[in-house]
TrEMBL record:
GO molecular function terms attached to this record: ATP binding; ATP hydrolysis activity
Name of this protein: ATP-binding cassette domain-containing protein
Transmembrane segments: none
PANTHER family cross-referenced by the UniProt entry: METAL TRANSPORT SYSTEM ATP-BINDING PROTEIN TM_0124-RELATED
Keywords: ATP-binding, Nucleotide-binding, Transport
Pfam families: ABC_tran (PF00005)
Organism per entry: Marinomonas algarum
Length: 231
């Protein structure tokens, strides 16, 4: 087996003026994982994602991404934040919004090359959003907006995609479509996601970690007892 592409060793973290969130945890993500982070609100799931992304810094221990010590955001990691209703107010088309992912990828700052435009188109096609690329964000449904958020992250060509509750506020049908999309993306992209939807986690994820100020690995096909504790 290849070594982990994201690894935390004896990692400690806490916010100022509050109790520690994590103390001495060990955690690893391997290539090809479809890894779900579950657990109660306030248990540290989003914090764990932000630590992997380099948005937060551990007080002790080490985080490595692709065998390099994490000191800042890594362009090989893509991030899809929690569904943000504020994108409703963005005066942008879908294409313009997705192109931001390319401009923010660290390759350049001010213009799009032919290669960039090709990758943006690829991200739109991969998320089935190309047919409404010219529409305003204000005209989209919740499920369409979530796909657009994923497309923006894909525009930077990440090897790992981290998603924070990608089906929050979506109905069952839209949630299923998002997880079907993620399954397709997982053929070429490693996935780590936060989710409260235990049924979908059980159906789609190949690894499950319960996060509650510590980590415990769970069998993805035996979630009933966790669901009772999670609610």
């Amino acid at each position: 087996m290849k070594g982990p592409i994201i690894e935390m060793q004896a990692m400690h973290f806490g916010y100022p003026q509050s109790e520690a969130v994590f103390e001495g945890i060990n955690f690893a993500v391997f290539e090809g994982d479809f890894l779900a982070l579950i657990g109660p609100n306030g248990g540290g799931k989003t914090t764990l994602l932000k630590l992997m992304l380099g948005l937060l810094t551990p007080s002790k221990g080490q985080i490595t991404v692709f065998n390099n010590t994490l000191s800042s955001a890594n362009p090989k990691l893509g991030y899809v934040p929690q569904f943000a209703s504020h994108i409703q107010d963005f005066p942008l088309t879908v294409w313009q919004f997705v192109s931001q992912g390319r401009l923010n990828s660290g390759r350049h700052n001010f213009w799009l090359t032919r290669t960039d435009k090709k990758q943006i188109q690829h991200a739109l096609k991969a998320t089935n959003t190309e047919h409404f690329a010219k529409r305003s964000l204000t005209q989209l449904s919740g499920g369409q907006k979530q796909r657009v958020l994923i497309a923006r992250a894909l525009a930077s060509e990440p090897q790992v995609l981290l998603l924070d509750e990608p089906t929050a506020h979506l109905d069952t049908s839209s949630s299923l479509k998002i997880f079907d999309l993620l399954t397709e993306l997982n053929q070429h992209t490693t996935l780590v996601l936060v989710s409260h939807d235990m049924e979908l986690v059980n159906r789609y994820a190949n690894k499950v970690v319960n996060v509650n100020h510590g980590l415990s690995w769970q069998p993805s096909k035996n979630m009933n007892n966790l669901e009772a504790n999670h609610q």
